[in-house]
């Protein structure tokens, strides 16, 4: 899937819970009994209006989500990632850090072209900090931070597969189905989306996923861990399929200043600089 948060790990399933068996409700004697009109009316009243969705297993829903992602040509998404510490897991965590949470807001756009290439645009928003933009195609990714006079263009990593076929979400889910227990908890409305609530769990951890029932998009993620106090969650606020393609928009022409300098960087140099900047940010926070 073309998303900015593949590091929101999904835990998995070594065992798939079977769908609940339905009670046939008949035997030889009942078949021999005459059926009255009132009996038929009662039977019709007991039959769900649409039983197909209610009998999907967790595995079937996950496979449907993978299929929907592979078929999706384009989308836009607005989401919020929350990261924080749960001090109830570790008594050594300072009290002032308990419940401290950082929010990162993401606005993403992705468009798969007929030739197999993919154009992406992502905006990362943190309160009190300049917005960070990235835009990519099959050859380069452009990085720009609001207010800077330089943008960086980095050559894409080479991959053997067609970019449109790369699907990290499918790889994660398939791994989870092999390694963890999966369960369909039920149907819930979250963030305005009617969703299937699915969990992946082992002895110490539970990962929660809410999958929207029409598009099969993940609209919420959360985690619990008995030993790790770090918590990370994701809430999708808006999701739209089938967006229009605008070449200028996917090249950040609406946000780049006219006099901005575009500097080419190789992959290693860019990664080293990103790591250095992250370490500087950590030092400033301490």
From TrEMBL:
Give the superkingdom in one word.
Bacteria
The UniProt keyword set, sorted, is: Signal
Q: According to the UniProt entry, which residue ranges have a biased composition of type Acidic residues?
A: 25-50, 274-286
Q: Quick one: signal sequence residues?
A: 1-21
What the entry lists under Gene3D superfamilies is as follows: Lipoprotein localisation LolA/LolB/LppX
Q: Looking at the record, which segments are called Disordered?
A: 25-56, 261-286
Protein name, entry field: Topoisomerase IV subunit A
Organism of origin is Geomicrobium sediminis
